[in-house]
């Protein structure tokens, strides 16, 4: 039986360490009970530590050391049947994920901006979400009558969109006010038992970088 909570946890962790930024101290590991070990490494690159392009994230899973965010996401999604049933679905999932990651990346990098620029960037993110991204997903959900973005099964596209919208709502609580289908969709996805459990405050999920994370990173880089 597919353990959706496991795959969601792994995918969210890999998103949290997207690009060249790693956790502030040493390697951080999380045993996900997959019959394998998942380990995320920091920016402290040393010869022979298997960071193929000398940057994180790096995931150790199923006897492999994977690098590059999209490769990691694709492997985990495919392993847990979150990547569609055929080429058409996989292509749609990939297309939605790529678009959503463009928006999520703005959120991830927001804490690293200068204080004077952060509020301006919130307005920029809101504008991009409302004008460019959300209308696309609102139209998709309104048009196909399915429970999920692609087909009738949870996919990587749903997970990334959920993560992005929840992160946006923390900064702009009414961001979905003009998108009723997205509101209903987020509620349904969030109430899937495994996802609901993962989203509980007590769960061991990795948050997006905050001010303390940024201070620690800059301190370690000096």
Question: What does the main sheet amount to?
Answer: 2 strands, antiparallel
Helical proportion, percent range: 40-55%
The helix count comes to 8
The tally of strands reads: 4
Termini separation (Å)? Answer: 47 Å
Structural class: mainly alpha
Q: Over all CA atoms, what is the radius of gyration?
A: 18 Å
The neighbouring-strand order within the major sheet is: 1-2
Strand content: 5-15%
Which quaternary structure do these chains form? single chain
Any idea what the shape is? globular
Low-confidence stretches: 1-9, 13-47
Q: Order of helices and strands, N to C?
A: HEEEEHHHHHHH
Mean pLDDT, rounded to whole units?
75
Care to give the gist of this entry?
By secondary structure, the chain is mainly α. It has eight helices and four strands, in the order αββββααααααα. Helix content is 55%, strand content 6%.
